[in-house]
């Protein structure tokens, strides 16, 4: 990735304060179409708050930002039409069946019953979950739930998908399979904005930013960051930066 | 979009086994069991008799007390002091002391004084018990004095007025309570269902998933409101059916009023639950808030104590209690068969509450912060 393609996410000194506490402190960056953007940082560094602002769930205190061409402060509902979101907490309806969850979210984004039905079959086939169509979501293993939640988040072909620590608590094999899904989504032109604590996953990203105490301390391709910090792995890069943190992690 | 949201709500309701149990058990508890336990009719007052006279007249009085049906004789004690011990120990509620020379002074045409001492720790029991007892004594005095007319009324001596109780001729406590308890049932069920449903989504994190979608706030709330409305109407029918089957209380011509008022009131109660859920993050918080308001509402709605006998300032507070209007409308519809037109004032108040509270629910539901 040499020159930036079409910009899908843009922030300019985006800031969020809660009282005296500045959770996100003047962050500025751009993310291009189809890019996989890793958003790293220690616990409490402000990642989730920043992501919530970009999703239109939280209003910025200062600065500005746009997602898919819409201003996050003034047009949050337009932003919401064009994004998918998968939160830290697994959040599909556990008491609905797999197909019912898909039907609900398809309906919410205005896909129509027939289109939803065909897409559901396609998607379950691709995930290898054809047999689980009529299973209640709560009966699925965590790894499957995560794959399903991701598929729901991109079901309506959003321009950007936000993933907040999507692979917490599953084994490395499941994580790898999950990243295959991320790659195929990015290949189809969906921009992926992902937070993670796993540094091996950071290596999979096109570019990563590392947040320390609400500020972005480093932003580049993983290879370039390793060179800049003269570190053999992203793990080492992260540790060197995180050492500077004064904020207590939670 | 609404179609899909409603579909989701109904599927979740049908799969929720706890909910379906609640919908049957709650009407049974409130309509079948509560009328008995909330009865304020005082029966079986325990009387301890101290007969200092030991005459035929005093024994006749004691028998009359025993035969009245309201009292059971806890025992005969030789002195007032010993009888008081019974009250202190809780084995007696009232002491009736017949003075020495009771029969003699009656024979002389005087009105001898008997002493009634009631334990008023339980005010209702003590107060009503001593009133009943006075009535029995008065009737005894009248009978023995030969004036049958006064005795027939069984009321305190004097030119007692003839009373005709309209709409509830036998003054049956249940007839009076059941319509109010249906109001309690609907309040409890609709308020709790809505509050817990939405806070449940908060705790599961699914509400955040909805908040990042373009679902409009009002649509989301409407989708929560409609199934609850259906559940409320269903439990109303259970309540009305139980009241008829168990207590033989049927709503006369009041049914249109009952249905109309319930239809509006369910919107009020659900909106209240929604407002509560919007200000709570956890089930516990929602429960505490809900109990706080529900208890206040029940105590000031005129169900257990008449609003007219509350102090002026308290009466003013009750005007802000939607349950007050609903309870009154239900009672009038049940007991008097009032039509919606006759209850227009109550209907206007409830309609106002429905509009204000639902607007508040939509306004306080934040998709972003």
From TrEMBL, chain B:
<dbReference type="InterPro" id="IPR047817">
    <property type="entry name" value="ABC2_TM_bact-type"/>
</dbReference>
<keyword id="KW-0472">Membrane</keyword>
<feature type="domain" description="ABC transmembrane type-2">
    <location>
        <begin position="126"/>
        <end position="368"/>
    </location>
</feature>
<dbReference type="InterPro" id="IPR051449">
    <property type="entry name" value="ABC-2_transporter_component"/>
</dbReference>
<feature type="transmembrane region" description="Helical">
    <location>
        <begin position="219"/>
        <end position="246"/>
    </location>
</feature>
<feature type="transmembrane region" description="Helical">
    <location>
        <begin position="288"/>
        <end position="307"/>
    </location>
</feature>
<feature type="transmembrane region" description="Helical">
    <location>
        <begin position="176"/>
        <end position="199"/>
    </location>
</feature>
<keyword id="KW-0812">Transmembrane</keyword>
<protein>
    <submittedName>
        <fullName>ABC transporter permease</fullName>
    </submittedName>
</protein>
<keyword id="KW-1133">Transmembrane helix</keyword>
<keyword id="KW-1003">Cell membrane</keyword>
<feature type="transmembrane region" description="Helical">
    <location>
        <begin position="18"/>
        <end position="37"/>
    </location>
</feature>
<feature type="transmembrane region" description="Helical">
    <location>
        <begin position="258"/>
        <end position="276"/>
    </location>
</feature>
<comment type="similarity">
    <text>Belongs to the ABC-2 integral membrane protein family.</text>
</comment>
<dbReference type="Pfam" id="PF12698">
    <property type="entry name" value="ABC2_membrane_3"/>
</dbReference>
<keyword id="KW-0813">Transport</keyword>
<dbReference type="GO" id="GO:0140359">
    <property type="term" value="F:ABC-type transporter activity"/>
</dbReference>
<feature type="transmembrane region" description="Helical">
    <location>
        <begin position="347"/>
        <end position="365"/>
    </location>
</feature>
<dbReference type="InterPro" id="IPR013525">
    <property type="entry name" value="ABC2_TM"/>
</dbReference>
<dbReference type="GO" id="GO:0005886">
    <property type="term" value="C:plasma membrane"/>
</dbReference>
């Amino acid at each position: 990735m040499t020159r930036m393609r079409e910009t899908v996410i843009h922030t300019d000194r985006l800031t969020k304060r809660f009282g005296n506490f500045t959770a996100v402190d003047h962050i500025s960056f751009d993310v291009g179409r189809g890019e996989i953007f890793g958003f790293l940082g220690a616990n409490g560094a402000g990642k989730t708050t920043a992501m919530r602002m970009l999703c239109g769930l939280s209003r910025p205190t200062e600065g500005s930002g746009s997602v898919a061409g819409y201003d996050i402060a003034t047009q949050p509902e337009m932003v919401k039409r064009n994004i998918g979101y998968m939160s830290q907490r697994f959040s599909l309806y556990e008491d609905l069946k797999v197909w019912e969850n898909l039907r609900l979210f398809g309906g919410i984004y205005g896909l129509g019953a027939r289109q939803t039905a065909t897409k559901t079959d396609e998607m379950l086939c691709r995930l290898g979950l054809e047999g689980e169509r009529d299973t209640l979501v709560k009966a699925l293993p965590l790894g499957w739930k995560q794959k399903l939640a991701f598929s729901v988040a991109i079901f309506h072909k959003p321009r950007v998908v936000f993933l907040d620590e999507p692979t917490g608590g599953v084994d490395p094999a499941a994580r790898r399979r999950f990243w295959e899904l991320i790659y195929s989504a990015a290949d189809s032109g969906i921009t992926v904005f992902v937070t993670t604590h796993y540094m091996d996953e950071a290596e999979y990203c096109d570019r990563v930013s590392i947040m320390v105490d609400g500020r972005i301390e480093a932003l580049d391709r993983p290879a370039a960051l390793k060179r800049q910090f003269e570190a053999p792995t992203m793990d080492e890069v992260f540790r060197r930066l995180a050492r500077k943190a004064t904020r207590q992690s939670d | 979009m609404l179609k899909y949201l409603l579909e989701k709500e109904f599927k979740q309701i049908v799969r929720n086994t706890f909910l379906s149990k609640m919908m049957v058990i709650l009407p049974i508890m409130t309509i079948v069991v509560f009328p008995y336990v909330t009865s304020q009719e005082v029966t079986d007052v325990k009387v301890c008799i101290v007969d200092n006279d030991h005459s035929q007249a005093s024994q006749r009085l004691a028998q009359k007390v025993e035969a009245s049906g309201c009292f059971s004789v806890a025992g005969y004690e030789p002195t007032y002091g010993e009888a008081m011990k019974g009250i202190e120990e809780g084995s007696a509620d009232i002491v009736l002391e017949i003075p020495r020379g009771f029969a003699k002074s009656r024979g002389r045409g005087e009105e001898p004084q008997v002493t009634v001492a009631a334990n008023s720790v339980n005010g209702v029991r003590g107060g009503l018990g001593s009133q009943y007892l006075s009535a029995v004594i008065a009737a005894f005095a009248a009978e023995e004095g030969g004036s049958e007319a006064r005795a027939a009324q069984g009321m305190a001596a004097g030119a007692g007025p003839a009373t005709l109780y309209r709409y509830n001729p036998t003054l049956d406590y249940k007839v009076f309570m059941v319509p109010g308890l249906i109001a309690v049932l609907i309040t409890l069920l609709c308020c709790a269902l809505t509050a817990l449903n939405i806070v449940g989504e908060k705790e599961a994190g699914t509400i955040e998933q909805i908040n990042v979608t373009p679902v409009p706030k009002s649509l989301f709330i409407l989708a929560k409101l409609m199934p609850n409305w259906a559940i409320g109407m269903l439990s109303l029918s259970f309540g009305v059916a139980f009241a008829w089957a168990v207590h033989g209380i049927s709503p006369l011509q009041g049914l249109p009023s009952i249905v109309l008022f319930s239809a509006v009131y369910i919107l009020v109660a659900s909106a209240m639950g929604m407002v509560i859920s919007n200000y709570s993050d956890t089930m516990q918080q929602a429960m505490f808030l809900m109990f706080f308001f529900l208890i206040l509402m029940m105590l000031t709605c005129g169900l257990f104590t008449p609003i007219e006998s509350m102090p002026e300032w308290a009466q003013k507070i009750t005007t802000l209690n939607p349950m007050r209007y609903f309870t009154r409308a239900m009672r009038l519809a049940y007991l008097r068969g009032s039509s919606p037109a006759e209850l227009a004032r109550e209907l206007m108040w409830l309609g106002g509450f429905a509009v204000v509270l639902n607007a508040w629910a939509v306004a306080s539901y934040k998709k972003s912060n």
